[in-house]
Amino acid sequence: MNNEGYLLQVKNLSKSFPGVRALNGVSADFSAGSVHALIGENGAGKSTLMKCLFGIYEPDSGEIILEGKKVHFNNSREALDSGISMIHQELLPIPFRSTMENLWLGRFPKRRFGPIRLIDHKKMYDDTVALFKDLEMDILPKTWVRELSVSKVQSLEIAKAVSQKSKVIIMDEPTSSLTEHEVTQLFGIIRRLRSEGVLIIYISHKIEEILAIADMVSIMRDGAHVGTYRSKDLTTDKIIQYMVGRDLTNRFPPATNIPGAVVLEVTHLTSASSHSFNDVSFNVRKGEIFGIGGLVGAQRTELVESLFGLRPVAGGQIFINGREVTIKSPTHAKNHKIALVTEERRVTGIIPMRSVKDNMILANLKKYAGSFGLLDEQQGERDVLENIKALKVKTPSSRTLIRDLSGGNQQKVLFARWLLTEPEILILDEPTRGIDVGAKFEIYNIIIDLAKQGKCVIMISSEMPELLGVSNRIMVMCGGKVTGILEGKETTQEEIMRLAAKFM
Ligand SMILES: Nc1ncnc2c1ncn2[C@@H]1O[C@H](COP(=O)(O)OP(=O)(O)OP(=O)(O)O)[C@@H](O)[C@H]1O
Ligand SMILES: [Mg+2]
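Above: query sequence and adenosine-5'-triphosphate SMILES. Below: predicted holo structure tokens.
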């Protein structure tokens, strides 16, 4: 069979789920020794295509051709054995095992002990140390995975893929939780793999990142392959245009909210844990969008988790409408009408085996309690459908299991969950992570609308344009300290960066 020099080809691949045509006759060619990016709106079919290549889904029709030969995988083991590995968008490590056990799971090194074969722990340990050292990853072989930060878990998955010595490595949003430094490191690893002839298929919503690392870019829309382009022939605007099917000249809606009186006041707040935030003071006004900027590790998440009662504080005060409050648990926080949309949907967010609807009304069951403690199903359904529509959640119905939604659409459901609690103070931790450019615009619109209704919105974001695009004021943190509070309209990306790296 002539494979025209391509390492991997898909021909006319289709895949449907109940109510969704996820892939609609996709054909694409991938070369060895290249970084091939895949980009498209939430629910466009990127992860589904990759799961077909990795033997997780069986395509309904079409062919996968690896090195000129038609292949068929019944499961991921077979894909791995053929030289394809994948880093998932939703990380799936086993929490109560060590990092090295997660790394070599299913292929533990063995040694003979008379007639029996035992796991060779020493070799496993040495191999792990060598691998981490080679990849310059700062992870200990015996740490429990449960104790690793999300970014370390992501690094672990990357190490695992590299250790398989695959010809094809699929990375589904590998940088979503990595620090800047780790992203640079990952790019180093990717370039090295490429020079060794590996094909890296790279999925991301970060266009700048794609333009920096990819050789080729394939764009998907509504389950179809729109086109493949050389990265150097593309620009951010062109990519957006191909993705959305139209120009998106403004990435931010006009911020027409006008801040009023102070609602939330935080003074000298200090974390109970010694390496976290320290002496943090700020206030947020009615109708204000208050951005929090900084680099990963600035303790922004820790700060808002304390405001939400998830982490203890050692000192300082919190006032709401002039009255001092103590917030020791999320229940206290909810009673004070504070809501928190978390950064990590996988860990603290969704309940995979429950429906979109259940996941959406979860934080607000009281509102739907009808007579005899039964849920007011109709009211619930109405609100849920309204939010599905407003946020353009791509789902066949409100009864679909949330785990069957694409990553970005799961994030939108989480966002809706907290909108339904009708909070006065809405805290958003990286609200648009994993969300495509078009849907981001909808989320900004909703945030601005909430502010116009007089809510306080606190938004942590690592994306400078987003911080500058929607915030009235921006507080910048570095190493757990506030390094500045800036007027959104008057500041610049450079100034924020400078403050974000002040103690480094
Ligand atoms: N196991 C499944 N069961 C039912 N529907 C599914 C399943 N997996 C994916 N889908 C649906 O197929 C469509 C494509 O999803 P996919 O996860 O491939 O999107 P994506 O391009 O990766 O999006 P994102 O950028 O949000 O991750 C979506 O409408 C999704 O809801
Ligand atoms: Mg996906």
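The longest helix spans residues 180-195.
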